[in-house]
Amino acid sequence: MPIIDIHIHLSDIDSFHRTAIDLSKVDYSAAGLKAEFDRNDVILGIGMGVSEQTKGAFPDSSSPNPMGLDLEEQVPSFLMECVGINPNRLDGKQAQDELDRIEARLQSPEVAGIKLYAGYYHHYVYDKIYTPVYELAAKYNLPVVIHTGDTYSMNGLLKYSHPLTVDELALQQRGVNFMICHLGDPWVMDAAEVVAKNPNVYADLSGLVVGDRPHFERFMNEPLFMDHFRRALVYSDHYEKMLFGTDWPLAPIDLYAEFVRRLVPEQHHEKVFYENAFSLFPRISERITKP
Fold first, then answer.
1. Which residue of 109, 114, 157, 209 has the fewest C-beta atoms within 10 A of its own C-beta?
2. pLDDT given at position 92
């Protein structure tokens, strides 16, 4: 079965380099990612754009918009990109220049959507500072992907990354589709309700486990851990709006695919691993023709 991984990273972020070496034991490079894609029948990935100007500064308040996949000189042909947004630069005299650069990038065919780093940046997703970004998303028919749940940095603030904040946003912006990353973990039941209630909200299952095989096996063999996510999936009962993503390099793709296969009932695997990506990210169809 072909797989689309809708949530990976390929940016020169210090914490990603360290995680790849110390925890997940993956080759954090475009070549390393392509090798994992080939071994696991992943035919396309979507990278979440982010950057840091100073080593270890993620989330970097000085990063210019739009943030991209800067680990390599250009986006590899097997990837698309969700451009990252730094809201701290969407205010004041520089705001229009930042928005102009964002819009110019959105016109590129390899751009699949927009990424907000809620929690890392201290703004609620329904804050007016993001309104011009949502207008661009509607103009170009692109989804907005939102980090929710725990942050991979102690500098984040969890009140901004709670999935319930997406409920208010989804009501305000019914013309835009949104994706809750990481199923809002640890608030997975709240995220499940937001997905179930709002027709324009999806969720991905990325980033729920970080590490190598011993780490994965320990958690996959812990019923309470697995049931934490299964309960949310059963409650939401919208497998047509759940998408597979790994959050690579935080975990090897083969282990993460095995983990999600255990979570999701087999009859929904084709939707979650492949078909649902076409519904949320319209530009995928321009890169891949569904059989």
1. 109
2. 87
CA distance 147 to 52: 17
* Runs of H (alpha helix) within 53-180: 95-106, 131-139, 164-172
User: Quick count: other Cβ atoms within 10 Å of Cβ 188?
Assistant: 26
H-helix segments, 2-154: 14-19, 30-39, 95-106, 131-139
The yes-or-no verdict on residue 148 having pLDDT over 70 is yes
- Indicate the helix (H) or strand (E) that contains 291: none
Distance in angstroms (rounded) separating the CA atoms of residues 59 and 46: 20
Half-sphere exposure of 112 (CA within 13 A, CB side): 32
pTM beyond 0.90: the answer is yes
Mark 161-183 as b/e (b = at least 16 C-beta within 10 Å): bbbebbbebbeebeebbbbbbbb
Cβ atoms of residues 201 and 180 within 8 Å: yes
121: β partners:
118
Token digits for 154? 């102690």
Residues 6+ apart with CB under 8 A from 110: 75, 79, 80, 81, 287
Largest CA distance in the chain: 53
Residue from 209, 181, 208, 206 nearest 194 by CA: 181
Three-class SS of residue 126? coil
The two tokens of residue 136 are 């661009």
Q: Calculate helix-pair angle for 253-263, 223-236, nearest 10 degrees.
A: 60
Is the model's pLDDT at 19 over the cut of 70?
yes
pLDDT in tens, 40-59: 999 999 999 999 998 888 88
The angle formed by the CA atoms of residues 214, 218 and 220, to the nearest 5 degrees, is 115
pLDDT at 23 over 70: yes
* Helical axes 188-197 vs 223-236, angle rounded to 10°: 20
